[in-house]
Amino acid sequence: MYIQRSIWSLQFLLLATYVRAQSSINNLTLSFSANDGQGNVTFSTASAPSTIACFNLADIFNNDGNASSASSYVVSNAQNFNSQTNYTSLFYQQLNTSVNGDSSGIGTGKDAARTVEVFPGEDCRETGGLSWYGFSCQNEDGERYVIPGGVQSFSIVSKAESVKQEHCWVLSERGSASNNFKGCFAAVMAAALTGTLLVLG
């Protein structure tokens, strides 16, 4: 698992770039737990990757201590992770610090620097007819959400590189099980399908 996590962290480090030099961003914090609050594990990063970075909970929380750093991110309470736990509770916190030196774009409910998508299956995929959910609004104090079906993986991408959104997302239901089949992963899959059809044509 250590080697596997090292590969993930190296991949994330290579993909990670800050949102344009003129923008400044704070940490993104994601905490996962069961609905009873048990098994709480936390992921935090100051990076905003320009290409989609996908993380499996089972890969990054490898039970090797209370807090560990993997270059571009930090995990806490990893010893609490249990692959049999259904992580249906998500704490989400993200706040911009400045954009072009202007603080008017900072605050809860405004566009954040990153888009976060949480998935019911590993490798940022849908499974069992369940939807995935998107988050891209700032939340200064953080808030806890219930994720139907639970979370096994999540993706992060710079908001600038994310699919176009009419407004920022707060627990926005996405995927084939919803009426909104939009999002980073969906966009990538659609582009791949289109490319395949053009080659075959």
Descriptive report:
By secondary structure, the protein is of the alpha+beta class. It has one domain. Helix content is 17%, strand content 35%. The chain has three helices and eleven strands. It has helices at residues 2-15, 57-60, 184-200, and strands spanning 23-33, 41-45, 53-56, 67-69, 73-76, 89-99, 111-119, 132-137, 139-146, 153-158, 172-174. It has a six-stranded antiparallel sheet with strand order 4-5-2-1-6-9, with no helix packed on it. It has a five-stranded antiparallel sheet with strand order 3-10-7-8-11. A hairpin with a 3-residue loop joins β4 and β5. The longest helix has 17 residues, at 184-200. The radius of gyration is 17 Å and the shape is globular. Residues 1-21 form the signal peptide. Keywords: Signal.
Describe this protein with a few key phrases.
alpha+beta, 17% helix, 5-stranded antiparallel β-sheet, 6-stranded antiparallel β-sheet, 201 residues
Summarize the structure.
Keywords: Signal. With 201 residues, the protein is an alpha+beta fold. Helices cover 17% and strands 35% of the residues.
Summing up helix and strand content along with how strands pair, one would put the structural category as: alpha+beta
The topology string of helices and strands comes to: HEEEHEEEEEEEEH
DSSP summary, beta strand count: 11
Shape, please? globular
What is the helix tally? 3
Q: Uncertain segments of ≥5 residues (pLDDT<50)? A: 5-23, 181-199
Report the helical percentage. 10-25%
Number of domains: 1
Distance from N terminus to C terminus (CA atoms, Å) equals 43 Å
Give the averaged pLDDT, no decimals: 77
Radius of gyration: 17 Å
Strand coverage percent? 25-35%
Spatial strand arrangement across the major sheet:
4-5-2-1-6-9
Major beta sheet summary: 6 strands, antiparallel
